[in-house]
Design goal:
15 strands; alpha/beta; 37% helix; single chain; 13% strand; seven-stranded mixed beta sheet; 387 residues
Length: 387
Amino acid sequence: MEGDVLINYGRQDINEADIQAVTAVLRSDFLTQGPAIERFERKVAQYCGAKYAVAVSNATAALHIACLAAELQPGGMLWTSPITFTASANCGRYCGADVGFVDIDDVSYNMSVPELERRLAAASVKPDVVVPVHLAGQSCDMAHIHDLAQRHGFRVIEDASHALGATYRGGRVGSCQFSDMTVFSFHAVKIITTGEGGMVLTNRKDLYDKLVLYRSHGNTREAAQMTHAPDGPWYYQQIALGFNYRMTDIQAALGCSQMDRLEAFVARRRYLAKRYGVLLQDLPLYTPQQSPDTTSSWHIYVVRLALERVKKSKKQIFAEMKKRGVNLNLHYIPVHTQPYYERLGHRAEECPAAMRYYEEAFTLPLHVQLTDEQQEEVADALHEVLQ
């Protein structure tokens, strides 16, 4: 079976209603900058309990304009987790800021709040923006991060790319109760998809106005934002240096349709995650743990090897699982060890917990189209390979 990958870590779920929603837009007058965008923004904002939402082309763009709205400047400082996709750090570099990494908690794999507090107390240059990452769909300890933000004067942008449908302390991730802004991703393998796409949520009108500007070239048709009265109905002004980060109505229509099944998607993921805990309990693995303050949306399912009980290397395990038709993955390579960040002076030893995680962790298949039988195939293959 080598080379014939049967079970991948993630996969989109598209049904006939999704196709019809996209087709309706294709037959309409607006393929972009039309009414489907606002419908999608409103639907996500209402679901999460936030006042405002701004849909963009992808979550990287969302992080970028969120940093711009937070007034992250050249020479400023952004801190984030080392266990994330590179975009969580790159958004700071796009603004000309320096980037620092706060090590992870060994249990949740999210940013360690005690380490953040220690770093803040010791730092000669404190962050202007902190980007906590809700890895796998489990929220960071946002109340404590918010308290530190109030004390030390930094902005908080939640990277919730994995966490649409998750909750923290009874509220939905995306409510921005403990942050300035929250970013979601709608990439093909995320909780819901628009193919590519992202969104920024906020409760602050001033941030919303900036986000809308930065999304679309820095242009405005709002007379109140212009430097002088408009010349006529055709008139617009560029009042900031923005970008073309717009989402299309085609994508937004798909997103609206997918939102109708969000709760079912998350329920299925939670069922599969709970079932993995039973299927894997006799293996030399550490399965994920959840804080009582959170309910995860389970974008991914990460396990860690009990290295003292495993004779094979992780590379061998990946290869042997692939022969059995299971394609494992890894989320993520510690960002501070990437060559680009090494050239900026970062070293592996900055974040020892992240390096332990990298040595031990890998991602199992988990998506709503994964059947119970396929999940059992994954577990059986792991039993063969690890025992």
